[in-house]
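Quick check before the chapter quiz. The format below is the same one you will see on the exam, so make sure you can read both the input and the output lines.
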Amino acid sequence: MFKPLHNYVLLERIEEENITAGGIIIPDNAKEKPSRGRVIATGNGIYNGADLIPMSVKTGDIVLFAKWASSANEVKIDGQDYVLIKETDILGILE
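Here is the expected output.
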């Protein structure tokens, strides 16, 4: 398995519905990339001098992340697509 370093988080995208509330089907080429994901793995955190600042998210959390995050990297691990992103580009945890 892949273990992110420092303050990186490995996410699995959660696909959004392709039908609007009004029943309109959105074609694949018109969809925006979803901004929700499931945390698959996290790094240990980041150091501030000698102090380790632990991660705020944990494996299994469902999070919202910035659609155009500068740190987002699309990666393929064992044939599966993931997003590798810095924790600072995660907007919040869905509970």
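If your answer matched, good. Residues 8-94 form a domain with the 10 Kd Chaperonin, Protein Cpn10; Chain O fold (CATH 2.30.33.40).
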